[in-house]
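Hi F.,

I've been meaning to write this up properly since the lab meeting, where we talked about keeping a consistent format for the predictions we share between groups. The idea is simple: the sequence comes first, exactly as it goes in, then the structure tokens exactly as they come out, then a line or two of notes. No screenshots and no reformatting. I'm using this chain as the first example so we have something concrete to point to.
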Amino acid sequence: MPGGRAALLIAFGIDNLGSGLFLPLTLVFVTQVVGLTVAEAGLSVMIGTLAGLAVPAVAGSLVDRVGERAVVIAAQLLQAVGAGTYLLAHGILLVVAAAVLTAAGQQLFYSALFGLIADTAGDDPKDHAFTVVGMVRAATFAIGAMVAGALLSTTGPTGYRWAITVDVISFVIAAAVLALGLGALGTSSPALPKGTTPPSEVVISRVLRDRPYLALIAVTTLFALSGDFFLVGVPVYSLEVLRTPPWLPGALLTLITVMGATMGTLVLRWTRRWSRIKAMQIAATATTLWCAASAAAALLPSAWTTGYLLGCAVLLAAAQLVSTGRINALAEAAAPRRSRARYLAAFQYAFTIAGVLAPAVVALFSVTPWLPWLVVAAGTAASVGGLRYVSKHLPAHAHGIADQS
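Output, unedited:
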């Protein structure tokens, strides 16, 4: 349904534009406007993140009852309330409340997102749909982040408050677009007639017994760790270990974001003859090489470091371009139709766990500069072997060759 797909892209573009505008300013706002210390601000956000861990466990049941579209809309409104709470915060309690609401909304959003994209894509292979949505979200987030960077350098508290206000409005508009533009699409996710859906504990037990799917979640966690480590670890490595210019971390993020926003479908077309498993194995191998190459930067003359790290970032970007849409498509295709919502909600834990682990890995820079790179490289290398197990035990149709759209 072209109209539904257009509404989906518009909604997620607006959503991510606001997120890109506010998320980079969150801790700055909490410390400079609300007045918390850096430690208090970090603790507040960590509490929110931990609280969000409980959401995917119940999100699948909620999707079964009301459908993916309704859950995504509710998640966007919940995030709007969370962002709005930051505007009202005058102490640590409201900041914690804002962080919890925002994290819960984010986890709820991602637990239903992939099912909604799959429903909107119809019966076609989902690789292209996931890739296009990823490109739009990356592009709009980058625009928002660039505006946030300008606010950081040119405005004070008034600019930060405007950023949060725009973020709140963007969530509300995105929810309205989905409500009006998708019609009944995304409401048919319950595969069983009402009243016959398996109880939550039955499906959760089924997921826990599904070793191949659990292996896919574990493999994805190992692979996703590299992306989260890039976001929070490379700036530390660049500025604290290698003493590069302060603009380099932003340039690295911009480079990867621009490549992801402009080349996703092109790379998918170039690699259309690869199965999802093969593509992910190649991407994991390339990411392992990125870790080794980045760690080697500490051995280079300082004059070479900036250009060298930019080259390394291209390697990571290429790996992400090959894998990102396919990871989600593989998880969606491998989930049993009757329990897809619960399986996809469980799959969200791969990214949640990776996000929680990344700061702990970054802390290893205090031991030695190469240790975090070794940990991430070991994870991506192990994921290659894990994918061999997954390829033998997941349904054959889940391996599918990417569509050529």
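Notes:
Residues 184-203 have pLDDT under 50 and may be disordered.
The chain has two domains: 2-190, 203-398.

If this format works for you, I'll send the rest the same way.

G.
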